[in-house]
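Fold this complex.
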Amino acid sequence: MAAKRPYEKNRAVWMAGDGPDADIVVSSRVRLARNLRGVPFPQQANDEQMKSVLEQVMGAVRATPSIGPTEILALQELLPIERQLAVEEHLTSPQHIQDPKNKAIVLNRDKSVSIMVNEEDHMRIQTILPGFQLEEALRLASVTDDAVEETIDYAFDENLGYLCACPTNVGTGLRASVMVHLPALALVGMVGQVLGAVSKVGVAVRGAYGEGTEAIGNMFQISNQVTMGRAEEEIVAHLKAVCGQLADSERNARKAIMSDARNQLEDRVWRSYGLLTNARIISSDEALKLISDVKLGADLGIIPDLPQSCFTVLSVDIMPAHVQDFVGKELTAWERDMCRATLIRERLGMNKEEH
Amino acid sequence: MICQVCREKPATVHVTKVVNNVRTELHLCQQCARERGELHVLSTPSFAISNLLAGLLQGDLGHEVHVGIPDGAGRKCRTCGRDYSEFVNSGFLGCADCYSEFAPLLNPLLGRIHGHVRHTGKAPRRAGKAVRFRREIDDLRRRLQQYVEAEEYEKAAIVRDEIRRLEKAAAEVEIDGTGGDAEAKEKGGSGDGGEETV
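Structure:
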């Protein structure tokens, strides 16, 4: 790897695995969709217009020190695997990297703030923090938004608010989401019921990697549905209340299992741990399911000495691009499954010197 | 409680089913539940906003045929050239002006998606200021009209001056977003509050 790699490999701050309610809430994310006034949305814009948007956003980011030190990554200058790394770290979306031309990601130092340029909208300002910190994520996004707005004119309508390419985002342009780990609710067979109930109160449930992705390893992304007619703070407060209730139900389910079926749970957790630390070939789906069990075990004190952060990092590190980055070369799916098993053994072995 | 099927392990899965108004309860252990297929960990079906939107819109069009509101076929945004049918298929509008160009078609949809068709949250600081001025000026114009009709010319003159002052301030805001006109606005607000007795 002699070539200078433009993609910094420092861990995004959300992967620290700490923060309030980190046993259940993995991360809190806020996204603001913004468009430049007088320029067609990316789907309709021509190359020249897209390029001009990119230049204006880059100019705005450089001109406003209040955003802090940032790095602007033109997607075209990144290797395909690096783009994929950014997606797996939730710093951009799978849609964004599909066609890298005239697109970029702006990242701050600790990767808590990212701006996707020319995704579905001209700009998507995203903040992502570890644990249950929705208000702080909103504050951070809003500060960034204000800083950009010092030099950029937004497409804004007095009645409709921030105008977005898709009418489902118009108004505040705000999508707040919380990544929750609900293994106990799944174990007692209540997860469908509980998530079905929250979806009736204006909250959407998706898999970890957003729209159209499956929830694997009991990770669910909970986000607001409505973006208009409510102020940003109200939207966030509502989501916070709903997720707070989800966390309570999960805690109750954990308590119930610990009192009624502790032996079975311990058996399940240790079996999963055994598989994870001994497998020689493992798919990412299987790994995520086992990690879910082991994380639950660590949260409940069944498996001691495993730091919370190791699971968040591990669940990202076992994704395809990260496995390939780990070994430093492209791999077939089969080779990946073998390297993934090695990676997991190494990681978990580092934290636990047994056996 | 012991699993009803194997009668060995404790029941940790409790299933309540209502089929044809007949309620059955099952208490199973993890393993038996899985074998019987009662333990479904929610796997979200592939679901995209744009599909949902397309569904809503198509419902919309069908509905409109009955009500007689012109449907979107063949409509184009005069600014960006986006065809309304392209929006229906993709879920994406072409530009900011599409919102006004397709307003009669879009607004009912927005109401259905959000339950509201009016933004109440944050506004850009510069544009937001201009918006506030504009709302206030509109208000004052209405009041001016009332005074004139009531032949209360002295009060009308005060309001007229206030409108001029605000218009000037608003123009400055539009030029460079940094004008410190917040207090001017406050004064305007309290000034006409006193005239409320008409």
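The mean pLDDT of chain A is 91.
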